[in-house]
Structure formats: structure tokens, C-alpha cells
Specification:
With 264 residues, this protein is an alpha+beta fold. The protein has helices at 13-35, 40-54, 67-70, 83-101, 121-124, 137-149, 173-192, 216-222; strands at residues 106-111, 114-120, 154-162, 199-203, 224-231, 237-239, 247-249. The protein has a five-stranded mixed β-sheet with strand order 1-2-5-3-4. α6 crosses α7. The protein is elongated. Mean pLDDT is 78; it is low at 69-75, 250-255 and 258-264.
Amino acid sequence: MQRKQRGETNTQEWLNTYADMITLVLTFFVLLYSISNVNIEKLEKVAAAMQKELGIEGQIDFDEVSNDVKFPVIAEGTEITTPSQMALDDAQQNIQNYMEENNVNAEISAEDNVLYIRFKNEVLFAPDSPSIIPESVGLLDYIGDVIKTKESEILAVYINGHTADGANSVWNDRMLSSQRADNVAIYLEENKGIDPKKLISRGYGKNYPIADNSTPEGRDQNRRVDIIILGNDFEWTQIAGDGSGSVEQFEPITPIDVPGVSGQ
């Protein structure tokens, strides 16, 4: 066996240092990737295990950890899905499935912490009547149950009633649309226990048509009820329309549009 001569230098030792450095770099990038896809349940378990090993178990409540730690932003421009957006996305999927399975004539979409549901009046009401038809009770029950399970992540639920400019109606259009919206809100409050402070009902009458009121087809589209669900992280800001570029701050009782739904 060849022996290393006294004083001879081992020129391969740098490889050990280099390999250790590469291992640390790889570990660093794996760590970055893991925290960019946070699983809260696993994070809670890891945090609890670390507290136990460090002898500080029970001194730190995970609920006290700020959201910027729970949902870290890894790089500028990275979008983080908030709890309220996750709740609305889940609600949209559940309601969409129910509508498809039961052939409900309605439209639904979600974006920017807002969930939009649009019904034609015939789905919920008989012609010239503010009373909810018995056939729609199951639909309102299901929507109410979904809202109730997500209520902690919901800021407000708007119910907007709209009518058309129809001839020979025994109702004033504004009164009819208001009572229809009110009755939906009352049903959700009394039968599903939804916080009444979060239920905001409004009647717009014939004043905001989405189609030509001079045709039967257009009037049919204009007769509708919109349910607009806002998540807790909805931002009540809008650029002022006076060209100044300033930002107006809106309160929850301020009317909002319904983008993202066909026919608007």
C-alpha cells in the first residue's frame, strides 16, 4: 500500500468543503420552495414540535402569529390566496355543482374576494309577486348553508332586486324589486341564522337594465336578483372619476357593480 510521504499535501480536501456548500445551497432552495406553499396544518405541527423540543410548549399561540408569517410573500409580484378568497372559491364550487345537478337557471363567478350569483326572477319568484316560490326554497337553503359555513370569512352579502319596465303591472317597479330583495335577506336571516348586519338588501326597480327593455327577451333578462358576497379582504377603494387620480374610500353600504357575469 502506498503511504503518503511526510509533508505531502492532500489536494482533494477542498472537495469536502465544496460538497458541504452545495448541500447547504440545495437545502436553502428546498426550504424556500416549501414555505412558498404553506400547509397550515403541517406548519402548526412543526411549530408545536419545535416548541416542545425547545421547552417553550404552550407559551406561543399559533393564532397570534401574524398573517405575513403564515402566508409569506417570497418575491415581489407573488400572489397569495387569502383565507377569505379560499372560502369564496370553495363556496363558488359548491354552489356551481348544486346548480348544475339541479338545472338551476343562474350564473356564478368569483374574482378579487367577491362571489357573484345572478338569478332570473322566475327562479325565485312568480310574476308580479314578491313571495319566494316553494320550488326555490331548497336552492336558498343550500346557498344559505354554504354562506353560513363561510360566514367568518364574509364581510357582507348584498341582495339586489331588479325589475323590467313592463306594462299592466299592479306593482310599482321599485317596491317590487325591494320587497323581493328583502324577502331573500329575511329568509337567510330567519332560516339560516346569518348575521343580519351582513345582509344588505336593495331594490333598483327598472333603473339598471342589462338588456333592451323594449323587447320581451330583454325584459326577461332585466328581471333578476343578484347575490353579491364580499370576502373579508375585499378592498373598498376605487379611483375617483374626476380625473384627479385620487382614491375614494367606500363603505359597505355603497352600491357596487357586478363585473364578471355575462349580460352586465
